[in-house]
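Example (one chain per record):
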Amino acid sequence: MKPELSIITVGYRSEKTIGPFLDSIQKNRDGISKEIIVVDNYPADKGASVAEKHSLKPTVIRNTENLGFSIAINQGIKVSKGEYILIINPDTRIVGQALKYLLDFAKKTPKLGAVAPRLLNNNGQIQPSCFMFPTIWNAFKYYFLGCKNCFNKYNPGDKVTTVDVAVMAAFLVPKSTLDYVGGLNETYFLYYEDVEFCRRLRRFGLPVYYLPQAKVQHAHGVSGNFTSHLKSPLAKSAQIYHGAIGSAILNAVLWVGQKWQKGLALTSRKKHV
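Predicted structure:
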């Protein structure tokens, strides 16, 4: 029988997280017919073996080296049989009926690019997980025009809403959408693959939704955002995304903008001394 939902996760140093992740799926008595596909990108630990021994019996694909996030997800998509694909990190935990909320929303939304749940930190606080497209103009508005959500992750609020980009820590896509627009862009080893995919969805007129009723706990609540891009691995992927000239201009805006913000903060402190 064809499953409704294919859950695809990429393992990398996930020996300690993959078991609890699978447990959280198993505890959900949501009635969804599902398959789980684990693509392991780190043969140096026992993450793949832990997954294989789990009672859920996921399909495990063992890569002999780290092929990157995009390639690994596409490997999972190629062997998947579900009508809907959930891309999700192994450092997450399903909260309550999150899978049912996501799937029900997708089923009743005929024109759908993707839908993402609310992410929660381990302490239960909301984790900002959406952002606007990281354009040069949005960076300028963030640093110089006071647009606080223009160039960093934010929480869209408590209502269902469309967003430019939702991070792929938990990200549900209809298989029909993937057949239409293609899988993840394998040019991106890590980072910006979510931005590029959401931009492609936008070009095809397919919206990305944020569904706060569905909640997923995500351990990496301190992951970097685009304002720290100059000193992070994001820079290489950003150069692919923006091109050499666009990336150089963006870096200049970020550098000047950070100096500007520091100058304003210093001036403000002196006024209050």
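Caption: Residues 36 and 58 are 5 Å apart (CA to CA).
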